[in-house]
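This week, study the protein below.
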Amino acid sequence: MSAACSERALTDWQLRQLPTAATPFLRIQDAIAATVPGCNFTDLLAAGAIADPFFGANETQLQDIELSDWLYQCQFDLSAADLAQGQWFLQADGLDTFCEVRLNGVLLGKTDNMFVPWSFALAGALRVGSNQLELTFRSPILRARPLQQAAGLIYPAENDKSDDKLSVFVRKAPCHFGWDWGPRFVSSGIWRPISLQCVPHGKIIDSHATVLSVSDVAAELLIEAEVDLTTAAELQLAELQLELTCDLLHCRQIVAVTPKAGSQTLQFKVQVDNPQLWWPAGFGEAFLYPFVLTLRAGVTPTAAGEAIDVQPLPVGIRQIEVINEPDADGVCFYLKVNGVPVFCKGANYIPADAFPARISKARLEAEFAAVTAAGMNMLRVWGGGYYQDEYFYQLADQHGILIWQDFMFACSLYPATPEFLHNVEREARANIRRLRRHPSVALWCGNNEVDMAISWWDWPAKFGYSDLQWQQLKQDYHRLFGELLPTLMQQLDPTSFYLRSSPQGFWEDNADHIGNQHYWGVWHGEAPFSEFARRVPRFMTEYGFQSFPLPQSFDRFLAPADWDLQADAFKVHQKHPRGNQLIRSYMQGEYAPPADFKALTYLSQVQQAQGMRQAFEAHRKAMPFCMGTLYWQLNDTWPAASWSGIDYFGQWKALHYQAKRSFAPQLLVFSASDSAVDDAGSLQLQLVSDSRAPLTATLQLQLLDFDGQVLWQQQQQLQVQQLSSETIWQGQPQVVAPARSVLQARLLSWQPSEQEGAEQQLLAEQLWYFVPPLAQQLTVGAPEIQWQRQGNQLQLTLHSKALLRQLWLAVALADEPALVWNFSDNFFDLLPGQARSVTLDVAGRTDAQCQQLMASLSCYSIADTTGTH
């Protein structure tokens, strides 16, 4: 009989609706097939019991679902031989949220936290033959309501789209109760994998590595593993060993395991000579050493014994410091990785689906491919969602994407009863232990925006708190975020940085010089985009602007009759109360009124990208005063008007393409030293380089008219310093026709050994227009396009005789309209007489399909939006 741990899948699940006193009607009368992992909403949808929650105004018709209880059931068989193999457990990685777990009518336990993995011993409940497993999920609303009534006040969870704000009492994703970019679907179900596990003798339940010291010569690692042994191990085994190996290092270490029931922690010290370090993207390779831990049983002097459990442990050797201390300019906030200051470029990451079990590995891979393609090196896992799946962090490790990890608290105060704090402690312990093994996890933050809210959101007046209540709420806040969480961080992950609340500096205070900041003067405060250049903080953790998806995405969630900002169904997908009005108002004076819905959606994306470009450039050129720019937000949780750069379906918006340009290793930034640039002011050109090595380059400047005539030009050689931001040119070419002129700057690699006429590598490009698009004399036109297939890529070369601003390329396959096609570049300015090349991934597609794609190609630019042609 094998002593190895084994796992058995649970299949053929069924779902039943259990009515409560609050259930208005039954969605299903009998059991329906259920998909696990999943939730009640997705199972009801698959059974045809509800319409697509994401389509039209359907969200508003599905709010009764949160008021019922829901029963998940499955059956499995075990033989007498199976039972004799060892101890059996039910391992549930995620139960959402209030769940009673029963096997053959025996209550195994109750759960009350979506974020915690649960393990239930099955001894005493299992039987030979058929076994019935039942998971009863209680309505989160009905479970939380008595807690709110006992508290005697309404907590200030303003994004919770209900009157009594019950979300604060429920340890599930806060955004499930609604947010200003997402729907309210208070789901229940088995949202992460669940299985039977047989443990004959013991298993490895946790492992992680700590870098004790590192230099170019050697790194010293402390690797710790927690092993849990069953009673059987103590009685039957004479010798247990834990083995650590790394084939790459020819490393093998063994420690003895005490054959005693329960858990024990074992340690290894490993020296790695001439270590390859783990670096964030753009700074070097995200190198991982493939360590493996193996628990062996029945070891003798002549036999290695049987491997009863194996746990891979990829180790990235790196040291991360968060420097957050007073300096000459205020209070700095930046990261040093392996001693090198890193300018962090990236975005905020929200749950990628309102129903998280639908997020596949392929979808996560596509997201990280988009992140790395855009030159990002950091994502912030925002605190209003959930701690991401293990595969998310594995991808971050592999791609060199630093993770700013929030605990799951956002935009509200929370209870601090002993029961609540105990629940949070269990949650925090589980997730700190799970994530501390990942080199990508760079820092932890207690919550999103609660410090700022206490100071600025006027909660006592809004919610009618007495002075005594307000003081108690703030004391409870300190107990949770000032005591409990930092204490747990110190115990479990003492080398990681903990920030109580983000941001530290508040935009309402004009405290740009204090730590990190969320700047919402643009958008919420209705300040112009130009304020991004004036309001530059030490580290920008949130800022953003909304746009609409493009028509091909609208096709998938709104009927054409609802493609109207005033349509009820459209408003369901715009969660910000002023969102549509703000998008339109910011266009005034910058763009001509859009002629139709296509023009509106397109211009909303151009406006978002060009407005955010001002922020990207302001932050990067302010290095080292500013050392980070994380915009709101990378992705969407459902199809909607939002701040995202990639829509719910995976379609890159103009913003993501602009981020790719603005986050390139080298960036050129024009700025005006005088508002009357076209009269007497001068321009400055700044070069920002994230490269860890200096480089030699050529700067080319030329003034063009919109037909491609060169009106002025200049060229100079540059020595570009590593990790630098410096002014490289200042001047003002004479501009006769500002409405028809553009200044182009190009940075090219320069190598003296290159043959004359050889093409140099373009490192960066920047354009400066002298008037806004509304005043520019743009002409309608279409580019000439040549294309060819090379392997898995379509290569397109575009030419135009006249300037095409923000050229949008779109393709589709008629028989697969839901497929998303993202070019290597899009929404760019095609200058007259200058060829531009882009590629499109067509892996797995036939030549005939490539022909269909190119036949479907449409081109659209700013000049097309007025409808006057």
User: Anything to note?
Assistant: The chain is about 20% helix and 30% strand. The chain has a mean pLDDT of 95. The two ends are 80 Å apart (CA to CA). The first helix runs from residue 40 to 46.
